[in-house]
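Sat 14:20. Reprocessing the chain from the morning session after the first attempt stalled halfway. Input below, unchanged.
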Amino acid sequence: MAGSFLDKLFGKKPAKDSPDPATATGGEGEQPPTPKLDADVHEKACQDTQAAMDRHWSGIGQVETDVIAYLIPPAFQGGPAWPTIRQAYRVVRRPGSIIIATDGMSDPYDDDSGENGFGMELFIETADIPAEFAGTSGNVADLKHSWAFEMLEHLAGMIARSGGIRDRLEEIGSMSSETPGVSESHAVAAQVPDRFKSADDSIGVLFGLPKPDFPDLVEDTPFRPVRLVPVVVITAAELEFVRAGGPDARHDLVERLAALPSGHRSDLKRDSVI
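Finished this time. Tokens:
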């Protein structure tokens, strides 16, 4: 999505590698550099993480061999940094729906922190990608032109700039956010129904809940288990409900959506629950 949406995310915090403003210029408070892992050790940890993610997603659906990736990582062009230079999106096809998921947010940092990156991967599951963009088995290229990919790519950038949201989700269960400037987007503006767009040109989303209908914790990664975090697109009426009611309204909305057959999936054909 690369700049077509404007960013709006619950209090941003610096990414892990961002300098502390109090020490960035040196002086007595300057911290020593974080020790780096041996290159071979780091590469092995990344490979083991990717293998664990492959095994987990393979138990959920048909994992495409190819990923959606970039010739030049966005971080090299001024975009938000992920834990490593690998920034990609995997595709998992399930009966009647498609999952597009970030692939690289859980890659281990190259230091000795013992962390699987942000400890999470975002995903959108939906049955509502237009046929001309859904592609067929073995073809993921067309999905780059879908609303689901454009939305996920944008949200991944927001999450990366904030340094991840795993710990916050562990505390409160779910989070809500919104992306203003929808009319400036491409696929989202054209493919998402108007009832999902607010009067002030925004689309709302939930992170983390409702829970997916498959295991959302990848346990066999080298360091911290990785959480798969669903992104659920909500209607304009639901967004206004959350804006007005705060956390209590968000919890109420999550319960209502969890009771629907679509659950954690972003269903563009459903009626509003508000």
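The helical segments are 39-58, 131-134, 147-161, 166-172, 187-191, 236-258.
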